[in-house]
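Cross-check.
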Amino acid sequence: MSEVLLLSIKPKYVEKILSGEKRVELRRRKPRSLPGDWLAIYESAPTMALVAITQIAEVRVNSPQCLWRSVGPVSGITKGEFDEYFAGTDRAVGIAIKSTRELATPIPLADLRSAWPRFHPPQGFIYLSDSHRQFVLDRAGSFNSQQKDAA
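Predicted model, tokenized:
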């Protein structure tokens, strides 16, 4: 079974992912995830819930300048935001996503903590254990009718 990466993402960017405007998630660290692996999207405050899952289409690592040239138009952020985020680093990561599915019923933080004692939403990302992965996939069995194919 493929790996599930859990990312915390700000609400304004989750909205852009769900609308299809944002098709690449930017990070300063490269996950070990591969194309075809699942990515669970945790929407940070004030929502504080797991709201969607998507599949990883590609993971690109490059200099910030090269990455911006290749993914800028589908990154969902401005060049200024991009430059601010990657200031001081010579490496930038773009996680291209596809087939984003919004959960019909988001999984609130309280439910995640009930199922996973000591759960804390990650600052960057975490990989889900087998039992956590199964919990997410079981709960994600129903989706909103619109599926966004972003890749």
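The chain is about 25% helix and 35% strand. Residues 143-148 have pLDDT under 50 and may be disordered. Passed to J.P. for a second look.
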